[in-house]
User: Fold this.
Amino acid sequence: MSGPAPSPARAGEGPLLEVEGIARTYAAPGGAFRRRGEAIHAVRDVTFQLRRGETLALVGESGCGKSTTARIVLGLERPDAGTVRFDGADVHGLSGADLLSFRRRAQIVFQDPVGSLNPRIRVGEALGEPLRVHGVVPRERVAARVAGLLRRVGLDPEDADRYPHEFSGGQRQRIGIARALSVEPDLVVADEPVSALDVSVQAQVLNLLSDLQRDLGLTYLFIAHDLAVVRHVARRVAVMYMGRIVESGTCEALFERPLHPYTRALLEAVPRPRPGRRVRAPVRGEARAGAVPEAGCPFEPRCTHPERDAACRATLPPLEHKRPEGWARCIKTPAWRVVEEMGPPAGVADEPPA
Assistant:
């Protein structure tokens, strides 16, 4: 099979990444709250496309399947069903030189900048290793390339001789970004890249990612649970709940008029301290990660939709086209009528003008 050979991102080409119907189920090891061997449905029927040069955000609470989806996309885990195509090639059918080429073109920035760096090796060695493995530059130019990468992410070239523990959290994440950039990738999976950082540092890292995308034409799959972060980095958003995508669409439309009750609950949970703000009741209960009801909508036990009824408990909603570039998995949101009646989420679309 012919694998993905390096090629520049050009407007008008097909999607860089195509994910179709992927699913992944694990067997629970057993414990206080689970029977041994109980099926945990981490990902179920997830489908999306990612065009060159854009950012798609996968959002949802912990345990909804975001990181499992990312690992499947990168070929680190094999799905039980479905396909992942990168530049037209089946990721899970690659081997040899084709697989090595894919590894170079698809990189990841991890959530934990401490755990993602080897504390026993210097930063220069950590950045130089992928250059040597993939033969990006001749060996005599590796040091110069490492210095350039450090400058690119806002660090000093002399930092190459330091160990990870000598840096702050934000600086370590910049090193992780430099390592991902070192092999000139097309796709970068950013798995909660700022959730472990101080709020004061998050904006700096997000601005760096935006600048790199603009300058290098990168494509991002951005995983997050913080919708306030997603609003500033993504063009499109896919909301996941209990392994399924329950809503997807443009960032602007999703924030202005969410179609699914779960999306609405996430938006209303965004903390916005403001005197006199009207706060609606939060979503009730908790999701049991990976546990799927035998029938009906998985979100029904926690749903606050005004038209929720017995049909929601009996029917698994399909992901339906509800508006231009907008899909939702809710049988009680058939058209614009219900969305308009519900109004905008509190504290999101009703922001006062600056």
Observations:
- Residues 240-269+289-342 form one domain.
- The mean pLDDT is 84.
- The chain has two domains: 17-29+37-234, 240-269+289-342.
